[in-house]
Automatic annotation (TrEMBL):
Domain of life: Archaea
Protein name: Putative endonuclease
UniProt key word Hydrolase: yes
CDD domains, per database record: GIY-YIG_UPF0213 (cd10456)
Organism listed in the record: Natronorubrum texcoconense
Pfam families per record: GIY-YIG
Length: 82
């Protein structure tokens, strides 16, 4: 796996959260334990729906921004929820 990962979680309330990490397993566990981003703390349990790997932080951060700009419907298509 590449060093830089962009991921999408589905929260318990059905919302989608997009983030960046260098350790996907650890980061998903943090979110699940309520220790991740402020957004996901009150929306557990969370489930990893999608991830993409990149060789550079800048590429991953650019992709994270792109995904965050997508409409809900386009995000659902991306992660296969539609």
């Amino acid at each position: 796996m590449a060093d830089h990962v962009v991921y999408v979680l589905e929260c318990a309330d059905g919302s989608l959260y997009t983030g960046y990490t260098t350790d996907l397993e650890r980061r998903v566990a943090e979110h699940a334990a309520g220790e991740g981003a402020k957004y996901t703390r009150g929306r557990t349990p969370v489930e990893l729906q999608y991830h993409e790997c990149y060789d550079s932080k800048s590429a991953a951060m650019s992709r994270e921004y792109e995904i965050k700009q997508l409409s809900r419907r386009r995000k659902e298509r991306l992660v296969g929820l539609e």
